[in-house]
Amino acid sequence: MTEPLLALSSLTLGLRMGADLVRGLDLHVNRGEVLAVVGESGCGKSMTALAVMGLLPDGVTRKSGSVTLDGIALTSLSARRLRAIRGKRIAMIFQEPMTSLNPVLTVGEQIAEVVRQHEGVSHRAARARALEMMNRVKLPDAARRIDAFPHQLSGGQRQRVMIAAALACGPDLIIADEPTTALDVTIQAEVLRLLDELRRDHGTALMLITHDLGVVEAMADRVAVLYAGVKIEEGRVEQVLDGPRHPYTRMLMAARPDADAGRGKRLVEIAGSVPSPDAMPPGCAFAPRCPQVKPRCHDRPPAWRGTAEGHGCACVLHD
Amino acid sequence: MSTGLTTGATGARRRRGRYLLRRLGQSAIVLGIVLLLQFTLIHLAPGDIADVIAGDVQSDDPEFIIQLRRDLGLDQPLPIQFAFYVGRLLTLDLGTSHAFNMPVLTLILDRLPATLLLMFSAIALAFVAGAALGTIAAAFRGRWPDVLVTISALLFYATPVFLVGIGLILIFTVWLRWLPMSGMYVTWVQHTWWSLAVDIARHLIMPAVSLSLFFVAIYTRLMRATMLEVLSQDYVRTAWAKGLSPSRVVLRHAARNALLPMVTMLGLQVGSLLGGAVLVETVFGWPGIGRLAFEAVFRRDVPLVLGILFFSSVLVLMVNLLVDLLYTRLDPRIVLR
User: Fold this and answer.
1) Which one is predicted more confidently, B185 or B141?
2) Which has the closest alpha carbon to B284: B81, B158, B117?
3) Using CB atoms, which residue from A103, A118, A151 is nearest to B243?
4) What is the ipTM of this complex?
5) Which of A18, A205, A239, A279 has a Cα at 20 to 30 A from A116?
6) Which pLDDT score is estimated for A119?
7) In the prediction, which pLDDT does B215 show?
8) How much is the pLDDT for A264?
């Protein structure tokens, strides 16, 4: 087996002098594949993404574990060398296209600056590349829009600009944090399809953070389910969606509005809420909400059990 | 879908022209109100020029004073006096200063360039230094550069202008003998254009620095606060995610967005800057409007005081109009209406 492009090993993130937000996370993304990271809000998905970029917000810090890209330990790189990788080999697309673009710079400048930073090309060449990228993300009338400011574009167009900037330097990996959550439903599919198309053309891997299982089914090769900062299930999309093993994953699927089983019935909801990071139960984090809870679930966290086919799960039911 | 794109440059120019016209109209109305207030305030003070002139010529003859009042039009009711005053203003006749025995307009125009030079050097210095210091403080939040800048700003803020002036004179004139103590240029040498410019610049340093320090403090604190807010915005995170260098992120992405409140402050402070100019011009013997105002008030020279107030009001209004036009340069989202 070849080495994965991106590997997170026993990554623990937490508040400085405080609770842990992500605990002992192992994840990997292979070259050219799409890994979906799924979970409720607050489960540590976005923090994980920011940790890969080395952009954890003030107050949150990596307590242990490592992030490796193509054999390079990102977590022990100097700030300068990490900057050379950000935007060049790993690019990130954020949730809110409204606020993620700088309001006082034209969209063309915001795409071109990535190219200028990493490839040291002239102003003119960078602008030409920006125009090319804008055409590639199918922004209508790109030649004129290149000098437009973000507020002159719609939400979907802005997210296309973000995608153009992310792909401008031909990265190996794109991290997309809920890239379509803020967009109209009608545009979501269009933007995702575009992202997938361009990604395939470039052979770029994608780490897609989402809570939408429909998106996972349509786009991802593999999926990892996070709950309260812990990975509870991971496998190929068809394995996980067709045969979910963890009770939480099963309930997530039952809670989908478009789940076939649920048609005509009331939507299922998951009773209770995610425990807060400073009040984690000593055992399985999902135990307080789990319908199949056993006494031993409360004792200590369940061990990770994987199958030969790469379908793993952390639950005592599969011990 | 994209109205901002479809309206071309000509549309923008026409909109700007209309906007300018309307703003000028508004400014005229504001100016009228300001004049009325100034006029009323001055006449609320007991005594008038007739008393002063009578005192100057050491006469206590009531007949003389009544005659003087009639000649000066002071026996008319105040509204009529005001109407006459405004009428004369419209023909740029600001009256005659009895203290200097010269037309007020000539006096003011003589002194105006010196004050404008002082004010704009001071405000430019304050703006640039404040923006730079505030940016440094925000970029190094909580570390020693931030502490140093914050403490200095507090010092600048708390030190009275005249104290700064005297301190500077002590250091740079008395001890180091680097800079001239007062005036605007030396009169006893033959100047070429170049040597005159250098001489004025040397005389300008200390007054401009003293006048600006308080404003440096204000701009530093404002810039620091705004930068801290801007640095936590999503688009700054995007800029980091692109792998841009810290200087690029801070200067290109953050500082430009932080400048808008700074420019607003600039417009608001021209007025208080004029107030500060009175003190600084007095301390440094700078031949500007500030010192003229000081003398005019002490000698109860009503036409001169009113004339200076008129010019200051016009100046403040013009600067604020300029500031609003500058907004559109800084923030493309702002459209003039």
Assistant:
1) B141
2) B117
3) A118
4) 0.89
5) A205
6) 93
7) 93
8) 57
Instruction: Give how far the C-alpha of residue B138 lies from the chain's centroid of Cα atoms, to the nearest Å.
Output: 27
Q: Which residue of A has its CA nearest to B141?
A: A58
A105: chain B residues, CB-CB within 8 Å: 252-253, 256
Distance from CA of A230 to the nearest CA of B (A): 25
DSSP string, B199-230: HHHHHHHHHHHHHHHHHHHHHHHHHHHHHHHH
Nearest-CA distance from B234 to chain A in Å? 5
From the list B243, B253, B332, which residue is nearest A117 (CB)? B243
Is the Cβ–Cβ distance between A225 and A38 less than 8 Å?
yes
For residue A7, give the 3-state DSSP assignment. Answer: strand
CB B242 to CB A113 under 8 A?
yes
Q: What is the pLDDT of residues B86-103, one digit of tens each?
A: 888 888 888 888 888 889
Residue B223 has pLDDT above 80, yes or no: yes
Hey, are the CB atoms on A102 and B241 less than 8 Å from each other?
Answer: no
Within 13 A of A208's CA, how many CA atoms are on the CB side? 30
- For tokens 């206590």, what's the residue? B60
Measured between its terminal Cα atoms, the distance across chain A in Å is 26
Would you call B71 exposed, middle or buried from its count of C-beta atoms within 10 A (0-12, 13-18, 19+)?
exposed
Task: Return the CATH number of the domain spanning residue range B103-330.
Answer: 1.10.3720.10
Percent composition of chain B: helix, strand, coil (DSSP 3-state, to 5): 80, 0, 20
Interface test with B, best of A46, A102, A173, A177 (most B CBs within 10 A): A102
pLDDT, chain B, mean: 85
What percentage of chain A reaches a pLDDT higher than 90?
A: 52
- Compute CA distances B243 → A105, B3, B93, B109, B136, whole Å: 17, 33, 63, 55, 21
Question: So where are chain B's domains?
Answer: 103-330
Q: Is A92 in contact with B241 (Cβ distance < 8 A)?
A: yes
